[in-house]
Design brief:
346 residues; eight-stranded mixed sheet; 30% strand
């Protein structure tokens, strides 16, 4: 009965995360393994970046990333210490007609025994401790990235590591040498992954790609360090208001985004931008808005409420003004340099 329940839950997760597995004979692992797996959309994005002859996934898990990332490689190796999980992956790959070498070992043991060189190494470290609590620092992950990074770079031209969306980017750069690129991947404006690329080659700077999948496929690229020299102009709200997508907010390039797109900020801490003419290329949401007085807000009106750098949260604002949630119109509660303001979509 437990096995049947596991398969039913697996199919439910697959419907939203990886529908390509909804085939007869496919087996699903326990819930935790499903939760830790990448979605089909983020795995597909990463697969379009990597190519070569030899690919190895050192933390195969349920194999979603490996299935997509390995499509541009001739020889594929999957390492997984969980015997039952690896059997499930091998079964599924046979059904999907995908070939790979399956190795049932701990990552550390494999690295001690390995004599091969790989074009690309991929790993997704476990982000939970022995008590199942979430961890974020590289030294707390399993495996400890800081401990094995030198070994990884000695057997591959490129090491790709998937990390928590909550990891601090400045911390990451400070402790992990050899970073050539960082991709912040959002799906429908929800940041899902921070992916780090390590390289043995010297680079002029660390490239960062802020990606927002299934929301216009927005991408904003910059070099780390550009934010430190970028400057913003400030203004009271003009005709258009801009909200960057969450991958850009995660990157913290608040002045750079203003400078690159010729926009003015409302306030140093609001992270809202404005212009008199519409910028169609902005990676985020754009609203045509006007300033209103709070007295003009009527009870039971329907709005999508956004709060940025404002004392009250959206739920508190809706309760205070007796507003219904949803609809086509927006209210933004925020601050400009002159003080609190309320903006209404036109």
């Amino acid at each position: 009965m437990l096995e049947i329940v596991q398969q039913i839950k697996g199919k439910q997760v697959a419907e939203r995360k990886f529908p390509f597995l909804l085939k007869e004979g496919i087996l699903f692992p326990p819930q935790l393994n499903l939760e830790q797996s990448s979605s089909e959309k983020t795995a597909l994005y990463k697969s379009e970046i990597l190519k070569g002859k030899t690919f190895i996934d050192l933390t195969s898990g349920f194999g979603i990333d490996a299935y997509y990332l390995s499509q541009n490689f001739d020889h594929i190796t999957l390492v997984e210490q969980n015997t039952e999980l690896l059997k499930i992956v091998e079964n599924n790959w046979n059904i999907l007609n995908r070939q790979a070498k399956f190795i049932n070992l701990k990552l550390e043991d494999f690295l001690d025994e390995n004599k091969e060189h790989f074009d690309v190494i991929y790993l997704d470290p476990a982000r939970r401790d022995e008590q199942k609590n979430k961890v974020f620092l590289l030294e707390d992950l399993s495996p400890d990235i800081l401990e094995i990074q030198e070994k990884l770079c000695s057997i591959s031209d490129q090491v790709v590591i998937k990390l928590s969306p909550l990891i601090d980017l400045k911390y990451l750069i400070s402790v992990l040498p050899g970073i050539s690129r960082i991709d912040i991947i959002a799906l429908k404006n929800d940041v899902k992954e921070v992916v780090v690329f390590l390289s043995n080659k010297n680079t002029d700077g660390i490239i960062c790609n802020c990606v927002n999948l299934e929301s216009g496929e927005e991408t904003f690229t910059f070099i780390f360090g550009e934010e430190e020299t970028a400057e913003s102009e400030y203004s009271e709200p003009e005709k258009y208001i801009y909200i960057p997508n969450h991958s850009i907010l995660k990157a913290g390039v608040f002045n750079l985004i203003s400078q690159k797109f010729g926009l003015k900020k409302l306030h140093p801490n609001s992270h809202l931008y404005t212009s008199a003419e519409k910028n169609e290329d902005f990676p985020g949401r754009v609203f045509e808005m006007e300033i209103i007085d709070s007295k003009s807000i009527k009870k039971k009106e329907q709005f999508n409420v956004i709060s940025k750098n404002y004392p009250l949260k959206p739920e508190e604002i809706k309760k205070k003004y007796g507003l219904k949630d949803g609809g086509e119109h927006y209210l933004i509660f925020t601050q400009s340099k002159k003080g609190k303001i309320i903006l209404k979509s036109v």
